[in-house]
């Protein structure tokens, strides 16, 4: 379980990015983190693994107080936290398989990583993960030959190659079309439920967050102003997070897109059954 208590981040300029943020995420729960630009969403997930240093408060992952760790212990702790980035963060000249295996760099000696000679068990895990994300046929392709959705799937497999206890996901659908966005969110949620992994997803798309998250946390100016199930995210709550807007029209448009995708998926299943 992840437990965040009174997390605060104040920059040297005096700007407060986070103020007394507290919440916990149990095993297997997927949390959608929403809020306007500048609300502190990216800062929050980076404070959890200390890519950004918190000013005060604590972050505990199961038995480990991450905020108290020194450099060596922090490096080892980060192996327990998988990170999936908005811009994929792949090494484009390397193959898909090599990018996935980079998730094991914190576990192998330097000479193995330098020569790319990973243990057979790590390679077998990478093949299983590539099959799970639907990319087993692309293992030997260079990363720069992939589409955006395929790159994001490589990023997911790489994070899982760490065998993490927590997933932190920063805008996984920002560069993707609506259909691919839903496919990626569905894949993330399915994997979390299969593995019992807790996850925090920083996401701008409110409808996607409601459709796929078990729970929504809304930030406004670095403070938690909503924390509850997706069904409780009313127009009043959305206005508290983002300000006044025609939320009904936004939801209707997204609902139409999702319905069209569901119909297409059912038609594909019916076609496959008839073959």
Fraction in beta strands: 15-25%
Number of β-strand runs: 10
Task: Return the CATH topology.
Answer: Rossmann fold
Q: How far is the first residue's CA from the last residue's CA?
A: 45 Å
- Name of the CATH superfamily: P-loop containing nucleotide triphosphate hydrolases
Unreliable spans are: none
What are the secondary-structure elements, in order, as H or E? Answer: EEEHEEHEHHHHEHEHEEHH
Helices and strands in order, then pairings?
Elements: E1 2-10, E2 16-25, E3 30-34, H1 41-48, E4 56-61, E5 64-65, H2 71-78, E6 81-84, H3 96-101, H4 110-115, H5 120-132, H6 148-161, E7 166-170, H7 178-195, E8 199-202, H8 206-212, E9 215-220, E10 223-228, H9 235-242, H10 247-274
Parallel strand pairs: 3-8, 3-9, 6-7, 7-8
Antiparallel strand pairs: 1-2, 1-4, 4-5, 9-10
């Amino acid at each position: 379980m992840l437990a965040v208590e009174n997390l605060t981040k104040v920059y040297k300029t005096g700007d407060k990015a986070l103020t007394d943020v507290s919440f916990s995420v149990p095993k297997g729960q997927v949390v959608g983190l929403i809020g306007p630009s500048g609300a502190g969403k990216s800062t929050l997930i980076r404070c959890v693994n200390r890519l950004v240093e918190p000013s005060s408060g604590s972050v505990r992952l199961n038995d480990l107080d991450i905020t108290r760790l020194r450099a060596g212990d922090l490096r080892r702790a980060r192996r327990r936290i998988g990170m999936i980035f908005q811009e994929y963060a792949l090494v484009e000249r390397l193959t898909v398989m090599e990018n996935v295996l980079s998730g094991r760099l914190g576990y192998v000696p330097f000479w193995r990583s330098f020569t790319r000679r990973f243990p057979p068990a790590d390679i077998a895990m990478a093949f299983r993960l590539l099959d799970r994300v639907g990319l087993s046929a692309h293992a030997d392709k260079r990363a720069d030959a992939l589409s955006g959705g395929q790159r994001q799937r490589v990023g997911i497999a790489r994070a899982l190659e760490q065998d993490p206890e927590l997933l932190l996901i920063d805008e996984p659908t920002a560069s993707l079309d609506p259909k691919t966005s839903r496919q990626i969110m569905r894949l993330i949620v399915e994997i979390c439920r299969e593995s019992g992994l807790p996850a925090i997803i920083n996401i701008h798309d409110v409808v996607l967050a409601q459709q796929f998250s078990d729970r929504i946390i809304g930030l406004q100016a670095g403070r938690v102003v909503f924390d509850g199930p997706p069904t409780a995210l009313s127009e009043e709550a959305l206005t508290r997070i983002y300000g006044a807007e025609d939320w009904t029209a936004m939801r209707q448009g997204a609902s139409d897109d999702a319905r069209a995708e569901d119909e297409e998926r059912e038609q594909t299943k019916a076609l496959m059954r008839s073959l």
